[in-house]
Specification:
Elements (H helix, E strand, L loop, with lengths): L1 E4 L11 E5 L2 E10 L7 E6 L8 E9 L2 E2 L3 E5 L1
Antiparallel strand pairs: 1-4, 2-3, 2-5, 3-4, 5-6, 5-7
Amino acid sequence: MSLYGTGIRNRAALGEEVATVGGERVEVLYAGPQGGFDGLDQVNVKIPRSLAGRGEVPVSVAVSGRVANFVTLSIR
């Protein structure tokens, strides 16, 4: 899953990205510039199979301790 925002590329160090989906911490595969639009950043996360069928779940991303706005994802 890819999420988009701003300010992610300005983190203090690699590995300061934390993402949760449905309350479970998920692996962050990439966090940095999106590449196609100036100033847009991208976070790619791996959604584990254990979340299959959960329906609507909250998604949270924090970078350098700063939490972004929550979004909701529907998982079938």
